[in-house]
Amino acid sequence: NASRNDLDAWWMPFTANRAAKRDPRLIASAEGMTYCTPDGRRLLDGISGLWCCNAGHNRAPIVAAIQDQAARLDYAPPFQFGHEGAFALASRIAALAPGDLDHVFFCNSGSESVDTALKIALAYRHARGEGGRTRLIGRERGYHGTGFGGISVGGLPANRKAFGHGLSGIDHLPHTYDREQQAFSIGEPEWGAHLADDLERIVALNDASTIGAVIVEPMAGSTGVLAPPKGYLQRLRALCDRHGILLIFDEVITGFGRLGFAFAAERYGVVPDMICFAKGVTSGAVPLGGVIVREAIHAALMQGPERAIELFHGYTYSGHPLACAAGLATLDLYRDEGLFERARTLEPVFAEAVMSLREEPNVLDIRTIGLAAGIDLAPSADAPGARGYDAMVHAFNVNDLVIRISGDTLSLCPALIVSEDQIGELVEKTRAMIRAVA
Ligand code: PMP
User: How far apart are the first and last CA of the chain?
Assistant: First the structure.
């Protein structure tokens, strides 16, 4: 019987002050597809933690690797030392990435990976004597984390307005979602590839010689599971090539199996100049993020008197030994259990199950791709977002279900270990919740 105030308290980001919360929802442990509350309730995790625990929770080999690493080497200062785990993980990640995306810069989160990629783009321009190419381009409805770079290229104006509207010199491509054209789409919608051509408009307004990079999520995850229309990313790549603009894929959600491949870049046959990753690289067990860059970018940065990136960017915890150990164990699990292929096999099963919700009350649209789905509910007439809010309360309190709800959009994104039975359970719990808030 949580009231709105209870849940607002729970949402508050300042978790340190627990006394300020009247009804903190606590979880005590987790295993595989479930969380356990302190009073012993088991919750089905339908969103892989927060789009991150792709191999499921508390997997024994990952736990063991972290424990073992903690006992041997807790920390290595990244500006003075390397360590085996960091090199091993970097080469494993590079081997999973397409083309000559061969070098990895480690950081600690998705937001840091985005700021790192944007800074690498600008440092690359600087190193090549193209310092005028400082404009950056994002996409409407893109989410790139909470750093200053991320909120600026991100396509959610509400996330910037309290912060001076973010950095200047940023443009946004239009988002590709159109309910009229693409309702109830499975996989890539047929309509919308031409929207990539808007890059030409931005180039015409600003001149290509002022533009450094474009950053997009191949599939916009947290803003509603918006898959790229067929051909869109290829078109964007071609336009970037034509104008000498770097293309960055933010694969913080799509990386590590969510779309059935190590990276979405592989699914779409498009090689970007950089890939941002985080979340799934450790299956959520330890914070870790990074940027994979193409050979030419690395070469340009690592020559000349300034060696820009080595000198001017990095984090205390870049390539942290515990994170790298967790990353290596996670990649082993993905490989040994064939989890990316598993996601590919389950994709149609998941899509069919989720699409069975289309006749439920207030369901305006459902989109599925890989093991991710976005479900839009009709907003209540007097209070947009309220239906989603009620659904969230209902999910936790009645259905023992954890999914992600923003506004009136529900997101499902189970771990890649999910069984067909658990997909059924996830969908039936979601159905019960949608009916309850009708
Ligand atoms: N990029 C994308 C595409 C994301 O989905 C997220 C987080 N949901 C981020 C960046 C930011 O990641 P973090 O919260 O780890 O900073």
Answer: 18
| 101: Cβ contacts below 8 Å, ≥ 6 apart | 94, 265, 271, 272, 274, 275, 292, 293, 294
Which residue in this structure is represented by tokens 């985080």?
Answer: 278
Place of tokens 């071609």: 238
Taking the model in full, what pTM does it have?
Answer: 0.95
Q: DSSP string of 170-228? A: EEEEPP---HHHHTT-BSS-SS-GGGGGHHHHHHHHH-GGGEEEEEE-SSB-TTT-BPP
437 lines ligand 1 (CB under 6 A): no
| Reported ipTM | 0.99
- Strands 289-294 and 401-402 come out as unpaired
Whole-angstrom Cα distance, residue 132 to residue 153? 18
Q: CA 432 from chain center: how many Å? A: 28
Answer whether 114 contacts ligand 1 (Cβ < 6 A).
yes
**Beta-carbon neighbour count of residue 329 at 10 Å?**
23
Specify whether the CB–CB gap between 328 and 405 falls below 8 A: no
Instruction: Please give the helix or strand (H or E) that residue 275 lies within, else none.
Output: strand 274-277
- Give the integer Cα–Cα distance in Å for 16 and 436: 33
Question: What separation in Å is there between the alpha carbon of 435 and the centre of ligand 1?
Answer: 31
- CB 147 near ligand 1, within 6 Å: no
Q: Ligand 1 mean position to 210 CA, how many Å?
A: 27
pLDDT one-digit tens code per residue, 251-295: 999 999 999 999 999 999 999 999 999 999 999 999 999 999 999
Contact 230, 216 (CB under 8 A): no
User: Is any atom of ligand 1 closer than 6 Å to the C-beta of 145?
Assistant: yes
Pair 69, 325: CB distance under 8 Å: yes
**43 bridge partner residues:** 35
Percent of the chain with pLDDT strictly greater than 90: 81
How far, in Å, is the centroid of ligand 1 from the Cα of 50?
A: 9
- Find the helix or strand (DSSP H, E) in which 36 lies: strand 34-36
> Checking phi first, is residue 184 left (phi over 0); if not, alpha (psi -120 to 50) or beta?
left
Which domains, from first to last, does the chain contain? 4-55+338-436 (3.90.1150.10), 63-336 (3.40.640.10)
- Asked if 408 and 384 count as a contact pair (C-beta separation under 8 A), the reply is yes
Asked if residue 277 has its Cβ within 6 Å of ligand 1, the reply is no
pLDDT in tens, 196-209: 999 999 999 999 99
Q: 411 CB less than 6 Å from ligand 1?
A: no
Give the distance (Å) from ligand 1 centre to CA of residue 360.
Answer: 31
Residue 390 is encoded by which pair of tokens? Answer: 């009620």
Question: Is the CB of residue 155 below 6 angstroms from any atom belonging to ligand 1?
Answer: no
